[in-house]
Amino acid sequence: MPQFSEITTDLAQLAIELPSWAFGNSGTRFRVFGQPGVPRDPFEKIADAAQVHRHTGLAPSVALHIPWDRVDDFDRLRAHAADLGVALGTINSNTFQDDAYMLGSLAHHDPKVRQQAIDHHFACIDIMGATGSRDLKIWLADGSNYPGQADIRSRQDWLAESLATIYERIGDDQRLVLEYKFFEPAFYHTDVPDWGTAFAQVQALGDRAVVCLDTGHHAPGTNIEFIVAQLLRLRKLGSFDFNSRFYADDDLIVGAADPFQLYRIMVEVIRGGGLDPTSGVAFMLDQCHNIEAKIPGQIRSVLNVQEMTARALLLDRDALAAAQQSGDVLAANEIMMDAFYTDVRGALAAWRSSRGLPEDPMAAYAASGYADQIAQARQGGAQAGWGA
Ligand code: PSV
Ligand code: MN
Ligand code: MN
Questions:
Q1: Among 283, 215, 224, 212, which Cα is nearest to 245's?
Q2: Separation of 113 CA from ligand 1 center, angstroms?
Q3: Which of 69, 158, 62 is nearest to 105 (CA)?
Q4: Which of 116, 122, 203, 229 is 20 to 30 A from 138, alpha carbon to alpha carbon?
């Protein structure tokens, strides 16, 4: 197995984008619990995200959600982020909370509704110009609840047309990123339910259209690392939305439910070259902290990704390849598990400190007094928005 010192160059490349909506109040369909100090506007969300980066060095950009993060002056928001040492990242569109979209948006049977949804994406592309964002991320709530309700085949064609119209508008250095999810809010059929559908749709568009894999958007038991390997192989893995699930789209802290799965995913990411910043694979969180504090929730999350990435980098790939080639099932599995069971926490703490970062970012944040400061200064924090 490699020494820790041999993996730090690769480990230093890890950058994880934070979702602005993780800092707002959130909850379930039963209750949204308010927390003290929650941001009242996008400027304060950026300030909170910058705290995560300050203590971890892992989170240099923040994804926005439009219209949840609409501001009058995106140039000012961009300058504000830069002042705080972070950048504005992916723009997430939202065609799932207007009455017009009850029966769908980009895949709707009515061309007027489709055009309304396309126009929203055009507005997002305009914002990307101001924010300097590379990626337009599209997650659709489109689908149906009952057999016979909709022509599921025509909807694929309408979706393809809508996406092509949006794709034509994005810049040469921008990307359209299509996210799939197997169900919810539609319960019978979903228009982009799986990686195969997302792949087929983006493949028809062109090179700058790629797939987003949200780890919470699969049926229980799905082998997600296989999907990672396949999309990387096909050069269509654009980004990750990391989170944990126990049951459905739980949006819990990544690495909380199944650290081994996160390790296996990172093994395939590294195997496919996805850790290299030039690979175009963007790592993001898509989480909500309903009952835990939000800023430390995000700190915990990026640390979990870092820890499992370190373990995946420690995997002895030469030994693994040799065991696989000789058909030695037990040896191959043992090599895979050796790296997973390696406790890297001490080495990571020392490495952070050598780079001028706190050894223990959770403790450093707790000691910083920021939580008290925002609880005093902010009253009436905003809700994150539905369902993130
Ligand atoms: C809804 O499932 C969702 O959680 C998707 O994962 C999106 O990425 C997110 O909302 C933000 O729109
Ligand atoms: Mn997502
Ligand atoms: Mn989701």
A1: 215
A2: 21
A3: 158
A4: 229
Which tokens go with 322? Answer: 């040799």
- In order along its 388 residues, the chain shows pLDDT tens digits of 999 999 999 999 999 999 999 999 999 999 999 999 999 999 999 999 999 999 999 999 999 999 999 999 999 999 999 999 999 999 999 999 999 999 999 999 999 999 999 999 999 999 999 999 999 999 999 999 999 999 999 999 999 999 999 999 999 999 999 999 999 999 999 999 999 999 999 999 999 999 999 999 999 999 999 999 999 999 999 999 999 999 999 999 999 999 999 999 999 999 999 999 999 999 999 999 999 999 999 999 999 999 999 999 999 999 999 999 999 999 999 999 999 999 999 999 999 999 999 999 999 999 999 999 999 999 866 766 644 4
Q: Which residues pair with 87 in a beta bridge?
A: 61
Which residues are bridge partners to 18 per DSSP? 62
Is residue 241 a contact partner of residue 215, using CB atoms and an 8 Å limit? yes
ipTM: 0.98
- What is the 315 CA–ligand 1 centroid distance (Å)? 32
Q: Is 193 inside any structural domain? A: yes
| Cβ < 6 A, ligand 1 pocket | 92, 139, 179, 181, 214, 241, 249, 286, 387-388
Number of domains in the chain: 1
What CATH number is associated with residue 239?
Answer: 3.20.20.150
| Strand pairing category for 209-214 and 143-144 | unpaired
Dist. CA 251 → ligand 3 center (Å): 7
Note whether residue 336 is domain-resident: no
Domain-located, residue 216? yes
| Sign, Cα dihedral of 352, 358, 362, 363 | positive
**pTM > 0.90: yes or no:** yes
- Domain assignment present for 333: no
Taking ligand 3, which is a single-atom ion, which protein residues have CB atoms under 5 Å away? 249
Q: CA-CA distance, 45 to 122, in Å (whole number)?
A: 24
Q: Which domain holds residue 254?
A: 14-311+358-377
